[in-house]
Specification:
By secondary structure, this protein is mainly alpha-helical. It has 24 helices and three strands. The two termini are about 25 Å apart. This is MFS general substrate transporter.
Length: about 550
């Protein structure tokens, strides 16, 4: 079996033909001599999962000297398939699992407001539903406004430094929620949490991209969001116990909830400061061990497999900040604009139902503790669908088809919420709600797609932040769809959600068609070029990232 591997920077390409022995599964490289490079360069067989088609000289696509893994770069490095699988499992254990734990901490602190509501927090504070909505809107506005600035700081300091600082700070604010006394302090803590927590998700995505290939990211992102939404299951059990502490020390149960869960996430944040390594080749420390986590050979494999998958990752080092010009260039990457546009509405159809789950269950006659336990089946279904459909999207190599399926899942369930009579059994309402909240979560697919289609580190950094920022903006809109004058059945709000589902279907089809058209347009130009013309283009082009003729968009 023969495959082609490329590694390097935005302006150059390197091609190597690798032969894999089917018996030993040893990967060996066949390099042309430096004298014969120009004669032997050819257009390789293109795998439509690849970002770059390839076809340049052997000297091209080398990482910059400042790249943190430069000393492990070796274009002739060889390793077996089994070695790589074993290394990926080790990365999952060492890196991905801890990132998931940090996301658990984020979700615990920003999501425990839902359990607090079930303990009559609004009544205790004298707040109305609309005031609660305003508080959530303040949170989301602050959260989204912090996304890009946080990415700029993270790229300069490094995610391994910036993320623990975020975690410790937001945990302190989370604990302070136990002391809120009314509307003003409620708004203040919501604003501070949004400002500090904003940016964590793209920061974590950037960090994971240092260790994983583009094709591995969607599954890791599904683990990432499993940790986030698995938090709801853990939080439900925690809330069941903690809320029984009402009147202990003169505090309501929800105050104890904020204080104790904030203390837990504070501990995780402190440990993260010592645990997170800056990069695959910088794991040695007094906390992680003087010899680090990986052998020299494992570091060689890690660096070269990532660069061969996405050469652009060698174009910046992990402590290199973005200039204002690079920021502007990233924002003006019009090929990502359709993804930004759909992110504004994609998750809205399920957000209001999710946000009002505990209140809706209380309105249908379930008590506080039944309500928290009844949320668990919805989140279990959610986790199963998240893992399953993320893997399916990569197996069939068709991400937008799965995104389209998500809209078709929501449509009949929202129709049921709209048409169910008010006197229907509480269990009928509960069943429809559980199925809607347990929807096929496609956010991990979309976030990975933005990262993959960015084509360069700078655009990936800002693109991930922009996508998540716009998603948070959609949460602001979603928080205003269910209103006081529309409760308890929210018929008007459900009509709005049905209209948004229809829009999502149209946008999903458009994005699929747009990226197919972009790829075919480049194929026509690229396939008409001679080998020499391709080689000359790759060596001399000023095009960057996904604007290169040899770049192909995933869809």
């Amino acid at each position: 079996m023969v495959c082609d591997v490329r590694s390097g920077r935005d302006s150059d390409i390197e091609q190597t033909t690798f032969t894999i022995d089917s018996d030993s599964k040893q990967i060996s490289s066949e390099y042309p001599s430096s004298d014969d490079v120009s004669k032997e360069v050819r257009k390789p067989e293109y795998n439509d999962r690849d970002a770059f088609i390839g076809g340049g000289s052997i000297e091209a696509y080398e990482p910059i000297e400042e790249y943190e893994g430069r000393h492990r770069y070796d274009p002739k490095a060889q390793w077996t398939e089994e070695e790589e699988k074993k290394l990926v499992r080790k990365l999952d254990y060492r890196i991905c699992s801890w990132v998931c734990l940090m996301f658990f901490a984020l979700q615990l602190d920003r999501g425990n407001i839902s359990q607090a509501l079930s303990d009559n927090m609004l009544k205790d504070l004298g707040l109305s539903t609309n005031q609660y909505n305003y508080g959530m809107m303040i949170f989301y506005l602050c959260f989204l406004s912090a996304e890009v600035p946080s990415q700029m700081i993270s790229k300069k300091l490094g995610p391994d430094v910036w993320i623990p600082i975020q975690m410790v700070t937001w945990s302190v604010v989370g604990i302070c929620q136990a002391l809120i006394t009314g509307e003003k302090s409620f708004y203040a803590t919501r604003a501070l949490l949004g400002l500090i927590e904003g940016g964590f998700i793209p920061d974590a995505i950037l960090y994971l991209s240092y260790f994983y290939k583009n094709t591995e990211m969607p599954v890791r992102m599904s683990y990432f969001y499993c940790a986030s939404n698995g938090t709801f299951i853990v939080a439900a059990f925690l809330a069941f116990g903690i809320l029984h502490m009402r009147d202990t020390g003169g505090w309501e149960g929800w105050r104890w909830l904020f204080a104790l869960e904030g203390a837990l996430t504070l501990l995780i944040g402190v440990l993260s400061w010592f645990y997170l390594p800056p990069s695959p080749t910088q794991t040695a420390s007094w906390f992680r061990g003087k010899d680090g986590w990986f052998t020299e050979r494992e570091e060689v494999i890690m660096v070269n497999r990532v660069l061969r998958d996405d050469p652009a990752k060698g174009g910046m080092h992990n402590r290199q900040g973005l200039t204002l010009k690079l920021l502007w260039d990233s924002l003006m990457d019009y090929d990502l604009w359709p993804m930004y546009l759909i992110s504004f509405t994609m998750l809205i159809p399920t957000n209001p139902v999710n946000a009002y789950l505990t209140l809706s269950l209380r309105n249908h006659g379930f008590d506080t503790f039944q309500t928290n336990l009844l949320t668990i089946p919805a989140y279990v279904l959610f986790l199963i669908q998240l893992l399953f459909w993320t893997r399916v999207s990569e197996w069939i190599n068709n991400r937008m088809a799965v995104v389209l399926f998500y809209s078709f899942w929501c449509l009949p369930l929202l129709l049921a919420l709209e048409l169910l009579p008010g006197n229907a059994s509480p269990w009928s309402w509960y069943t429809v709600t559980v199925l809607l909240i347990g929807f096929p979560y496609i956010h991990s697919i979309m976030v990975s797609l933005v990262s993959r289609n960015a084509g360069s580190v700078r655009t990936r950094t800002i693109g991930s932040a922009m996508y998540n920022m716009i998603c948070q903006a959609s949460s602001v809109i979603a928080s205003q769809i269910y209103r006081d004058d529309d409760k308890p059945l929210y018929r008007r709000g459900n009509k709005v959600l049905l209209g948004i589902v229809a829009w999502n279907v149209i946008m999903t089809i458009f994005i699929k068609g747009y990226f197919m058209w972009r790829n075919k347009s480049r194929d026509r130009v690229w396939n008409d070029m001679t080998v020499e013309q391709k080689d000359h283009y790759i060596k001399t082009t000023k095009d960057k990232g996904n604007k290169r003729l040899d770049f192909r968009f995933a869809h």
